[in-house]
Amino acid sequence: MQxxxxxxxxxxxxxxxxxxxxxxxxxxxxxEEILRRTAEIIAGKRxxxxxxxxxxxxxxxxxxxSILADPRDKEMQDIVNLKIKFRESFRPFxxxxxxxxxxxxFVLDREQQSPYMLLVTQVREEKRVIPAVTHVxxxxxxxxxxxxxxxxxxxxxxxxxxxxxxxxxxxxxFNVRGEPIVCTPEDAYRCFMxxxxxxxxxxxxxxxxEEQKPVEAGENEDWQKEFRLD
Length: 230
Hints:
The chain has helices at residues 12-22, 31-43, 75-85, 102-105, 151-164, 185-194, and strands spanning 27-28, 48-51, 65-69, 94-98, 119-122, 139-145, 168-173, 199-202, 205-208. It is α+β, with helices and mostly antiparallel strands. The protein has a nine-stranded mixed β-sheet, sandwiched between helices. The longest helix has 14 residues, at 151-164.
């Protein structure tokens, strides 16, 4: 199977219509600016919801419905677990790494691929500068990405690499514990507003939590009871 991006996608017009109807405060940028700004935001220790193209089919978020963060900060593991995923703080996240850099950071054969996060291996001792994706035994469940797999997601990680010297991002599914992965722009915005996620990127549109209007009293009351926790 060449890719798992088999789900629905939403056009620029559909996303913009939703944002306007909802009264969301947003900015619109071209592709290069979206990549640059998102990489800068992540490097600035902010957690980003990333919603692009066709939804992944299956149990993994592979860069189209993902929550992304900086793997260099050990505290990011706790922040994403406790404030966004609502799960135990010890649970590690998967790293997405550029394929041509994967063997430098992980015990993999050169050009060995793991596009679906199905391979667990050790983080190399000399590259343990990514504590948020390194388990207590030094292992990580790796997702490698080649540009032909997902050009936009690859270019985002490449932009982060150019900025920080680290070709790796935290990648976890865009949902909270017990919920399915978000599918629609509305799903993504709801998850963004219900958690302590800092920023949201929907296609060409970017929004920060600080600029959004407060959630109305009672709107999110008992929302965590909607789905059974795992």
